[in-house]
Amino acid sequence: xxxxxxxxxxxxxxxxxxxxxxxxxxxxxxxxxxxxxxxxxxxxxxxxxxxxxxxxxxxxxxxxxxxxxxxxxxxxxxx
Length: 79
Prior knowledge:
The chain is 34% helix and 10% strand. By secondary structure, the protein is an alpha+beta fold. The longest helix is centred in the last third of the chain and has 14 residues, at 62-75.
């Protein structure tokens, strides 16, 4: 991989928070077995090992999370 070809941004949301925010009820369907291979329910999720930017959406609303992601990318010279 060429250096600086790719910047990884991890949008970190704990599963319980993602499930609580789920407007379409996908987690509920997955728990009932209606959506097989749903990440975090019956399919594993692996956290990125070393993302360049990590955003904690458990404490940030969308606008500040976006601003933080862009600031992190700008600091890396990515945008």
